Amino acid sequence: METALTDWNSKLAEIWTLLTQTPQDFKGGDIWRAISSIHTAMVGVGYGLLVLFFAMGIFQSAVSFRDFQRPEFALRHFIRFVLAKVAVGSCMEIMTGIFSVCGGIVATVMGSMGGSLATAATLPGEIVTAIEDLGLLASIPLWLVSLLGSLFITVMSFILLLTVYGRFFRLYMFTALAPLPLAAFAGEGTSASGKAFLRSYTGACMEGAVIVLACLIYSAFLSSSSPAVDGSLTAVTMVWQYVGQLIFNMLILTGLVKGAGRIVKEMLGL
Fold first, then answer.
1. Which end of the chain is more exposed for a tag (fewer CB within 10 A), N or C?
2. Distance between CA atoms of 185 and 192, rounded to whole angstroms?
3. Are 189 and 56 in contact (CB under 8 A)?
4. Domain boundaries, the chain
5. Does the predicted model carry a pTM greater than 0.85?
6. How far apart are CA 88 and CA 179, in angstroms?
7. Exposure pattern of 33-65 as b/e (b: 16+ CB <10 Å)?
8. Could you tell me which of 197, 217, 221 has the C-alpha nearest to residue 209?
9. How many CA atoms lie within 13 A of 110 on its CB side?
């Protein structure tokens, strides 16, 4: 149990560290350099799609050939084309700018709580003393309870870590392929794809703030309502009650972190 709780606390500390990192600094920046190379290659493809979407937009919005002779028609589409070209050529700056804004929100939330988690999950001294006083036969049921509890805690800690890592990889995929959906702004009929892309990317960035809030809520909840320990019970019962309450608290955090994307979508419509 102590090993599982130590692993849980270390995973939370690692998650906290990951949420303060930028994609450029993640894992020493090697992944970001590879993504930047892919992004540069996709810019050329994005320019090709830009022309295609622009032509599609013109012919879809034109009712007759006379529309092409109207100056306002040509000017509107020309301005749309220029803005879409600027978006494709500067999409790396757009992506990093959105992440910086959302990262500032995460930093503000962290700063309001001192920048770290205040409470760590530990095994109470009463349970440790009760376990150490047990004989060999009496400790067999305790082994089963501890094994099940440790398994649940370990699985949930890996789920939390995988969720945070998955968010980083999604940000990388968004950045690598950004020129393609942003090129859709060149056409009126296809601009919805570019808007949906930006909303999805902003939502992925904002998930960091939701995860930070979930960790802070878990820390405050754990410090204010730590699992109670009744010293009059047997060691097995004490461990069973403590592990059950502890796993319940951890399930709340795991559910909030796993549902960060859904929470952002419900709150901000992203």
1. C
2. 8
3. yes
4. 2-268
5. no
6. 5
7. eebbeebeebbeebbebbeebbebbbeeeeeee
8. 217
9. 20
Task: Give burial (CB, 10 Å; 0-12/13-18/19+) of 226.
Answer: middle
Which of 236, 240, 233 shows the shortest CA–CA distance to 138? 236
Structure tokens at 66: 């006379």
Question: Angle at which helices 191-224 and 235-258 pack, to 10 degrees?
Answer: 160
Tokens of 148: 């099940």
- How far is residue 150 CA from its own chain's centroid? 25
pLDDT at 174 over 90: yes
- Nearest residue to 145 (alpha-carbon basis) of 236, 218, 206: 236
- pLDDT single digits (tens) 151-170: 888 888 888 888 888 888 99
Judge contact between 53 and 187, C-beta under 8 A: yes
Paired tokens of 42: 């996709």
- Beta carbons of 88 and 182 less than 8 angstroms apart: yes
Amino acid letter, residue 16: W
Largest CA distance in the chain: 95
What's residue 173's pLDDT? Answer: 92
Contact (CB, 8 A) for 54 and 194: no
Tokens of 104: 């500032």
CA angle 19, 23, 26 (to 5 degrees): 75
